[in-house]
Amino acid sequence: MRWVSVDNPIPLSELNRLAAQRFGDLVKAVVDVRRILMVADDELHADQEAVLLCDGSDQSDLWGINLYPSLQGDDFIEFDSMINLRPSRGNRSRGIDDPALRELIRSIVARLVAR
């Protein structure tokens, strides 16, 4: 599992390597939108979520994504994870229903991935 922050960004080349080692074309990640960090590269978003919760994150700030390092633009990030199912917060899908939240996550990932 790789911790990624503004002070410790992840190069796109490393994302490509991680994708090739585990899933072939994607890297699973969980973003903490309050702390502006993410953990990447594990089998399950739930495992990444658990690590962040133990480190002091609030569950309401954590969102699961998939990164496709060989793709660009909107195709680079896929908003799809079981941890995103939060009917009590109005998110009734594995995606992220709120367009403003999706944009926030895009901007955070742009800061955390060194291209």
What does this 3D model show about the protein?
There is one protein chain. With about 120 residues, the chain is of the alpha+beta class. The chain has one domain. The protein is built from 3 helices and 7 strands, in the order E-E-H-E-E-H-E-E-H-E. The chain has helices spanning about 10-20, 45-55, 100-110; strands at about 1-5, 10, 25-30, 35-40, 60-65, 75-80, 115. The protein has a 5-stranded antiparallel sheet with strand order 1-4-3-5-6, sandwiched between helices. Strands 2-7 form a two-stranded parallel ribbon. A hairpin with a 4-residue loop joins strand 3 (about 25-30) and strand 4. The radius of gyration is 13 Å and the shape is globular.
The number of domains: 1
User: What is the count of DSSP helices, taking H or I runs of 4+ residues?
Assistant: 3
Radius of gyration, rounded? 13 Å
Largest sheet: 5 strands, antiparallel
Elements, N to C (H/E)? EEHEEHEEHE
Shape: globular
Extract low-pLDDT stretches.
none
What structural category characterises the helix and strand content? alpha+beta
Average pLDDT over all residues: 97
Give me the side-by-side strand order of the main sheet: 1-4-3-5-6
**Roughly how many Å apart are the termini?**
20 Å
Care to count the β-strands? 7
